[in-house]
Amino acid sequence: MLQEFTVGNYLSFKNPVTLDLSTAGITEYPENVFEAGKKKLLKGAVVYGANSSGKTNLLRAMSKMRHFVLNSSKRSSQDEIGVLPFLLNPETERSPSFFEVLFFLDGKRYRYGFEVSQEKVHGEWLFVKGGQKEKPLFVRELDGIEVMAGFSEGAGLEEKTRDNALFLSVADQFNGQISRSIMAWFRNWNTISGLRHEAYRAVTFNMLEDEKCKPLFTRFLKQLDLGFHAFQVVKEPFNPSRLPKNLPPEVLQQIMEDLKEQTMVSIETLHKVFDYEGNETGVKEFNLRTQESAGTNKIFNMLGPIFDTLLNGGVLVVDELGSSMHPLLTKAIVSLFNSNEHNPNNAQLIFATHDTNLLSYGNFRRDQIYFIEKDYYGASNLYSLVEYKEEGGSTVRKDRSFEKDYIQGRYGGIPFIGDFSKMMSEWQEKLKLTMPS
């Protein structure tokens, strides 16, 4: 269960910014809240901002932290870490990037983070809070790693940790109990793209093989009313005739050899057929990939990661969740996470979108709505609607029209669009001056 994610000096984030899933002192939509120990957390957050404001960079930062934690111990000593600091300032350009998470695991709250450059880890820390006081488990600085009594699994591994590897990942390689549990938490923190959703189709296929999952898929898809009444998974031997005809002969031959005797899996949607008098006469099968809309394909592809997160708990981060989909379909997905019935394990959904309709009927609390915008110096800033102050210092009331206010620029996080008519007239004048008479 994620409480906070903080990133600083990474991509467009110069100063540290925090996405906080702790609840503020507000009362709307109590079903969007769950308890983690004595703390109340949100079931998710939505992030708005203009193009190039930093929305995707925030989600990339989450993905980068997760990937580095899970894979740093597998790198060679010569591998670069792959971070890019804020480059529009000479000081930050030479400084390490900062990543930190606060999360709950096994009834305790952990705080884990690190500072890294391309070449090495500059700092790393792990703290745990089981009662009133937070205690360090290990603290790493450039001159060494200090391991406390509560993290005995790390003793003796200090010299085995490369400069470009995380100490936590090394402890996991030696089967440390705490580090193993934390690594499992990071594996359940998934970041996916709503634009490149085809990559997740295999996850959906695998879950449809589970008899426990398929009824959930079917019931949810029926509620969406996508134009078909059922679907079926079709398995058949690999057929070379289905390959594109314009592939180079050598590539075609290699694919045919690689896929020989393999099984092909596809989904067919079932549509009712009616006669001229409106009587149902049969069923027609449509191939999902070639005969259904882009939005329908996206829903199928993403239902795998979505239901996997709902069933097993964890955090799902999605960039451009609403692209190619009707706003009501996006709302339906969000509603799954805010539902006590469909989200028994308190899974959390964090996503970026341009879909302002959700501000009107997405049933979001003010502390779940975040905005990102860049300042004059090109640095991205992150703030929630509940933090935003009106003129005079008052907070935004829950009965305001969030969508209307946002489009009008009241909360920031939208593109500044100049006077197009003036721009066009100036361009036409310049064109006249350059044209021969």
Question: What does this entry look like structurally?
Answer:
- The strands form four sheets. A seven-stranded antiparallel beta sheet has the order 2-1-6-7-8-9-10, covered by helices on one side. The protein has a six-stranded mixed beta sheet with strand order 11-15-16-5-17-18, with helices on both faces.
- The protein is globular and about 80 Å long.
- A hairpin with a 5-residue loop joins strand 13 and strand 14 (280-287).
- The longest helix is centred in the last third of the chain and has 19 residues, at 294-312.
- The protein is built from 13 helices and 18 strands.
- With 437 residues, it is of the alpha+beta class.
- It has two domains: 2-193 and 313-407, Rossmann fold (3-Layer(aba) Sandwich); 199-300, no CATH class.
- Helix 3 packs across helix 4 (177-187) and helix 5 packs across helix 9.
Please give the CATH architecture of the largest domain.
3-Layer(aba) Sandwich
Tell me the overall shape: globular
Extract low-pLDDT stretches: 416-421
CA-atom Rg in angstroms: 25 Å
Name some characteristics of this structure.
437 residues; alpha+beta; Rossmann fold; 2 domains; 30% helix
Quick synopsis:
The protein is an alpha+beta fold and 437 residues long. The chain has helices spanning 55-71, 90-93, 167-173, 177-187, 201-208, 214-224, 249-259, 288-291, 294-312, 327-338, 358-361, 402-407, 420-434; strands at 2-8, 17-20, 33-36, 39-42, 44-49, 97-105, 108-116, 121-129, 134-141, 144-147, 189-193, 230-237, 263-274, 280-287, 315-319, 348-352, 369-374, 380-384.
